[in-house]
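Forgive a beginner's question, but might I ask you for the amino acids of a protein and the tokens describing how it folds?
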Amino acid sequence: MMILLRTLLLSACLAAVSSPLLAQSAREPVPVDRIVAVVNDEVITLRELRSRLDSALSQLKRQGTPLPPRDVLERQMLERLVMDKVQLQYARETGLRVDDAQLDQALQRIAANNKMSLAQFRQALEADGVAFSRFREDIREEIVISRVREREVESRIVISDGEIDNYLSGESAGGKSEEYEVAHILLRAPESASPEQIQKLKAKADQVLARLNQGEDFAQVAAAYSDAPDGLQGGSLGWRPLDNLPGIFADAVTRLKAGELAPLLRSSNGFHIVKLVAKRGGAAVAAVQQTHARHILIKVNELVSEADARHKLEGLRERLAHGGNFAELARLYSQDGSAPKGGDLGWIYPGDTVPEFERAMNQLQPGVVSEPVQSPFGFHLIEVLERRVQDVSSDRQRMAARQTLRERKLDEAYQDWLRQARDRAYVEFRLEER
């Protein structure tokens, strides 16, 4: 009986203590994660959106870009997450995968580009509060999206010999090498948009252009409103020759002075706002310096550390200093496709190799073997055999022209494909729901 009474008293005390808490909990719901968008049969959560938004804000701060209002950037970021989701779903449906081995190689290259081992790079990320597992999956998704673009867009771009002839004849007539630094904002139109949708989009584009003409920062406005993938980079296309710009941009920038905005441009993808940031060049390009070089490459992987690769090359360099034959050592030890040829890379044009390799090679005198040089591919011993200066060959000119024309078409074709993929998807926004 006493046990029963104590139990009843304890229950009453617990009820007296917990009732206010329960009442408060009922009055003030604890916020939890929720769905902010549905894309076909998948969802985007508020936590996912806020994580990406925080990363974008950090990036903008590092770039020194004035920050747009958070709610504006939030809506833009949600649309970009939708576009990523659409492309990743398409990749899965069509069997495109990036396995762990391919992902590990990419992570090794990223770490090497930051002059770190993978372990050091992981520690640096985690010290900045970035979970390595999340970063790893983000890189996997970036690679998948890149391969979707390559397969669905780049592989289908055709450049005819006639286009190359026209490009080269125009370049010869001008004899110039002008480059333009261009920034842009895209307001994308839906596929088969109605006249009312186009009119509404144009009104929005006119408002954005008016704000820019009143002096607002272009990079800030691009981050807030541009539907192009480079919006968070301030819409910058970097330095490009005129023929490497989309045709609609090339026609506009030739009539602009540095710092000026073009009138609103219309294409099948929507409305474009284009700014000429700067212009340079104009000197005739007559000849280039070529370098005849050879190398020995030791790759870094799970079994061979950076220290091991460097030590092995230092040993090979010592053997060369005592009369060893470079070609024989390259055939025995180099892990590059040039090994059967004694490491011979032939005549190299500027830009043919990665920057780290090219910088080290350019500092060498003919006949001198470099110290071990790190690049995204591993560690190299480099020897320059000879140098020459001569006109670019006809084959080389045509190859460069083909690449330039491909890049010019690529931006427009990719935006076209994205717009069609986005419009085929079922998308429901729930960001405003509270």
User: Anything to note?
Assistant: The chain has three domains: 35-153, 177-284+396-429, 288-390. The CA atoms of residues 3 and 9 lie 10 Å apart. The chain has 14 helices and eleven strands.
